[in-house]
Write a structure and sequence with these properties.
It comes from Cynara cardunculus var. scolymus (Globe artichoke). Pfam families: Kelch_KLHDC2_KLHL20_DRC7 (PF24681). This is Galactose oxidase, beta-propeller. InterPro entries: Kelch-typ_b-propeller, Kelch_1, KMD1-4. This protein starts with 12 loop residues before the first helix and ends with a strand. Helices cover 9% and strands 34% of the residues. The radius of gyration is 21 Å and the shape is globular. It has 2 domains: 42 residues, no CATH class; 202 residues, Neuraminidase. Strands 3-2-1-22 form a 4-stranded antiparallel sheet, with no helix packed on it. Strands 4-5-6-7 form a 4-stranded antiparallel sheet, with no helix packed on it. A 4-stranded antiparallel sheet has the order 8-9-10-11, with no helix packed on it. It has 342 residues and is mainly β. The model has no long low-confidence stretch (mean pLDDT 91).
Length: 342
Amino acid sequence: MEDFTELIPGLPEEIALQCLTRMYYGVHEVASHVCQRWRRLLLCKDFYYHRKQSGFTHKTACFVQSLPAAASNPKPENQPKYGLTVFEPSSGIWDQVDPVPKYPDGLPLFCQVESSEGKLVMMGGWNPGSWEPLRDVFVYDFTTRRWTQRTDMPSNRSFFAAGAYDGKIYVAGGHDESKNALKSAWVYDISADEWTELAPMSEERDECEGVFVGSEFMVISGYDTDSQGRFKNTAEVLDITTGRWRRVEEAWGGSRCPRACVTVGQNGNLTCWAESDPAIQVGACGVDLGDRTLVTGSAYQGAPQTFFVAEKLKQGQNRKLIKVGAPDEFSGFVQSGCFVEI
């Protein structure tokens, strides 16, 4: 691959950098093959933050979504296969992330996805063939359009809370391979590819949900090993600076599973997206994009998936849901999702 002395021959460095900063992320993979210097720049973390500070990153929602049946086999399968869908509300573009090479026929069932610094992180889940719990960690780079396998999770863990902050992924709760609920917690440093154990929560929390509120990691609801399905109305909050947890009483309506459907109101209270509209009361999933939220769900079990954009309004006003059309190939059931700023 040829290398250039100048970033763009004939242009001052500052102007050349601005040109590359404005380049749409969808062509980064092709551009990375132009020369060695472009490739180093496009893969550099500092360039990502330069694009972000300049306002040229793109806010997208990434969903773990059931794939349509193949045309050669239109009959419904016993277990649907899942892929990763990316939707950019500002442009209306829908796209499919390339399959993980280790799992070409579908993602691990109930895997968790988070993102950091424009990269997508997939963790855990169950082997789609054997239903064996997995510890796999894969990172997808949108510049190279490639998955890289990273250091495994320290132990088998399913249905856990997860959240991303400042280049790290925090996980807590869930259950182990014997269906025992967990209160342990770990943090994964993406750059260092290292897991570090955190202080445990005060109690077990299976099928809990994780959200970041500012720089605090909140683990919402869940249940103990001996009380499966009876969701707690409490939450625990990790101060990532001190590493200490604190308990929050009456944080969640205890009768409903919090996974993927938690929204944080302007006054800091936690509510459920399923309660915002009858069209998404089953399987509700919300992805906070900053100035808006992409919300999806169904009116009833087996009903078509409906997508809305919820605009954030002024204090005291209700969020307005605006329906979004999705192509047929992106209309499958959404299991979970995360925000990716590419």
